[in-house]
Amino acid sequence: RPDRWTDQQIVEEHDFSHELAAAEIPVVAPWRDASGESLLRHGGFRFSLFPRRGGRAPEPGDLDQLEWIGRFIGRIHLAGQARPFAHRPNLDVAGMGWTAREEVLNSPLLPRHERAAYATISEQLLTEIEHRFAAVDAARIRLHGDCHHGNILWTDLGPHFVDLDDCRNGPAIQDLWMLLHGDRTERTLQLSAMLDGYRLFHDLDLRELAMIEPLRGLRLVHYSGWLAKRWPDPAFPAAFPWAASDHYWSQHVQDLREQLAELDLPPLVLY
């Protein structure tokens, strides 16, 4: 995607991948040529080559798999805390929330009759998320950044992690919460299993559990902003035709309302 990342940001992502691979953490890192370069060029385009790896998505809610995954995320974070990214972005409300909101408000995708409702609820939600982030004041470490089931490939030998192109500085809980599914009881059991593995290698500040629902809300806002920003790319209307429908935006506004209500519920508590 031209201009999405600078050369420095891409190289920093690649270097992080290789740092993790050198620590025997199962990430799929890009190939380096004889001079050690992983960001290559041809015909005016930047590209990288990755080894082909197979696998399937982990089973949602499988406690044994989650404990195994937790061990490797703990090791990723042990390496990630050594120093911050210098060029990669931070996970914050300004970049992932307010900027995304402006993309939506300036986009023709947002129906006129949903504009006022979207503007109001998104402002309320992002303001509350800022308050929750400030209350925790979590430490920032280098993260995978987009650690969900679609970015983990599972084989009989365990997990391997792919797609570090959203890696950034942020709170450790960001790499854990997207792996939780089901109702509150199920998510609590899953988190406990994951932390049984995670804590063998890295501590988690349990205050960060209060960031799970704020992070979910931030992801909702960011995703719609990403669609709005990328819509001029001809590939996007073909891949996401529903994003131009009134139904999508009315449902999105309702999702934001429901997520704001979720912030009033107590955070998960480990058994």
Short descriptors:
single chain; 271 residues; mainly alpha; Transferase(Phosphotransferase), domain 1; two-stranded antiparallel ribbon; globular
In short:
The protein has nine helices and six strands, in the order αββαααββββααααα. It has helices at residues 7-22, 63-80, 93-105, 112-136, 174-177, 184-198, 212-230, 235-239, 246-262, and strands spanning 40-42, 45-47, 141-143, 152-155, 158-161, 168-170. It is globular and about 55 Å long.
Q: Mind explaining what this structure looks like?
A:
It is a single chain. With 271 residues, the chain is mainly α. The protein has a single domain, classed as Transferase(Phosphotransferase), domain 1 (Orthogonal Bundle). 49% of the residues lie in helices and 7% in strands. The protein has helices spanning 7-22, 63-80, 93-105, 112-136, 174-177, 184-198, 212-230, 235-239, 246-262; strands at 40-42, 45-47, 141-143, 152-155, 158-161, 168-170. A two-stranded antiparallel ribbon has the order 1-2. A hairpin with a 2-residue loop joins strand 4 (152-155) and strand 5 (158-161). Helix 3 runs antiparallel to helix 4 (112-136), helix 4 (112-136) runs parallel beside helix 9 (246-262) and helix 7 (212-230) packs antiparallel against helix 9 (246-262). The protein is globular and about 55 Å long.
